[in-house]
C-alpha cells in the first residue's frame, strides 16, 4: 500500500513547477520543501520499499520450502478441522507412522 501511495504522490507532483512549495512528513514532523527537493526523495523511498517487499517475498518462499521439507522429513501431516488429513495421496492411513498435528484448541 505504501508503494502505491508513493506512486500516487509522484504522479501528482511530477507535472507541477519544480520551484513550487510542498510539504512532506518526515518522522512525524511536517517540513516545507520544494517539489524539486521532494520528488527524488519520494522516488528513493519507493525504490527502498519495493526492494524490501522483494526481499520479504524471497524470504517467505524460502520459509515455505523449509516447512515443506521439514514436513516431508518428519512425515508430518496437517489434520483439517473436519477430520481429513492433508496428504498428497489423499488416503488415510491407520498405522502410526509420523506425527499428526491438529488445530490448536480454544480454551476459555
From TrEMBL:
Residues 46-73 form a coiled coil. It comes from the Eukaryota. CDD domains: Prefoldin_2. Residues 79-108 are annotated as: Disordered. It holds the Pfam family Prefoldin_2. Keywords: Chaperone, Coiled coil. The keyword Chaperone applies. Residues 79-94 have a biased composition (Basic and acidic residues). Belongs to the prefoldin subunit beta family. This is Prefoldin subunit 2. It comes from Abeliophyllum distichum.
Amino acid at each position: 500500500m505504501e508503494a502505491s501511495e508513493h506512486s500516487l504522490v509522484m504522479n501528482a507532483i511530477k507535472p507541477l513547477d519544480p520551484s513550487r512549495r510542498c510539504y512532506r512528513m518526515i518522522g512525524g514532523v511536517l517540513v516545507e520543501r520544494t517539489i524539486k527537493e521532494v520528488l527524488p526523495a519520494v522516488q528513493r523511498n519507493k525504490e527502498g520499499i519495493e526492494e524490501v517487499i522483494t526481499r520479504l517475498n524471497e524470504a517467505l518462499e524460502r520459509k515455505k520450502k523449509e516447512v515443506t521439507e521439514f514436513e516431508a522429513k518428519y512425515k508430518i501431516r496437517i489434520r483439517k478441522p473436519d477430520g481429513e488429513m492433508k496428504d498428497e495421496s489423499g488416503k488415510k492411513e491407520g498405522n502410526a507412522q509420523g506425527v499428526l498435528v491438529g488445530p490448536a484448541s480454544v480454551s476459555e
